[in-house]
UniProtKB/TrEMBL annotation:
Gene3D superfamilies in the record: Spore Coat Polysaccharide Biosynthesis Protein SpsA, Chain A
Protein name: Glycosyltransferase
Pfam families per UniProt: DUF2064
PANTHER family: GLYCOSYLTRANSFERASE, SLL1095 PROTEIN
Entries under InterPro entries matching the protein: Nucleotide-diphossugar_trans, Trfase_1_rSAM/seldom-assoc
């Protein structure tokens, strides 16, 4: 299945009342995604798990009212890697820019230029984020007035940033890949005079330790001690982890 590819400026009137929920994702190729999970996984298994994350996140987002799901992807030219992985309603839009902050800002600019009222940029590493967190983000961005919505991750980053305007300030001069990313982003927003809304704390899965947390949640039925609500069931990811446990890989 191939998906519509959005281009900035191709606005559609019906999008003016909707929030774009965009998963920031690399094409799921072995050796290109989730490489920090190898070991304990192989590079091929890491890529397969990444596909499970992508499927679960996309299927969860497809159920959020008032939102349109999409994948903001890289690299350009590798669109076929997503064929058949996403719900039929999903679209693709290419990433641009070099550094991480530049890519996030460009994604916000390009998606809003497609006519959406607001946009949430979502990581592809948190397959069990509860649907209620995404629903809250859409609701907060539908309220009058400008604001930033942040979904903080346990490692100090964020799994979601929601905006009504592409505010460059929240992407500039951030020390990316550190434990202060979410805090710095909130500070930049406050300096810019923006309200900041925090969603429930969750976690990314990007190494062996957080993979074990995910296994505990989905396979062992143990919620992480730092979260206060139940997560999304992530069926594709759970099936993968159960199979890996049976072969003693994880």
């Amino acid at each position: 299945m191939q998906y519509e590819i959005l281009k900035p400026g191709d606005g559609v009137a019906g999008r003016a009342s909707r929030c774009a929920m965009a998963i920031m994702a690399k094409a799921p190729r072995a050796g290109k995604v989730k490489t920090r999970l190898a070991p304990p996984l192989t590079l091929e298994q890491s890529a397969a798990l990444n596909i499970c994350f992508l499927k679960d996140t996309a299927e969860g987002l497809a159920k959020v009212a008032g939102a349109d799901g999409m994948v903001c992807y890289t690299p350009v030219g590798d669109e076929a890697a997503f064929d058949g992985l996403l719900p039929e309603s999903f679209r693709l839009i290419a990433q641009r820019g070099d550094k991480f902050g530049e890519r996030l800002l460009a994604a916000a600019e390009d998606i809003l230029a497609c006519g959406y009222r607001s946009v949430c940029l979502i990581d592809s590493d948190s397959p069990t984020v509860p649907k209620t967190a995404f629903e809250q983000a859409v609701w907060e961005l539908a309220r009058e007035g400008d604001r930033i919505v942040l979904g903080p991750s346990q490692d100090g980053g964020y799994y979601l940033i929601g905006l009504k305007k592409a505010h460059a300030a929240v992407f500039e001069d951030i020390t990316w890949s550190t434990a202060s990313v979410c805090e710095e982003t909130a500070e930049r927003a406050h300096v810019a005079g923006l309200e900041v809304v925090m969603l429930p704390l969750w976690y990314d899965v990007d190494d062996a330790a957080t993979l074990e947390v995910l296994c505990g949640e989905l396979v062992g039925g143990r919620m992480p001690d730092f979260v206060g609500v139940s997560g999304y069931e992530a069926p594709h990811t759970k099936e993968f982890l159960v199979a890996m446990r049976e072969t003693a890989t994880v």
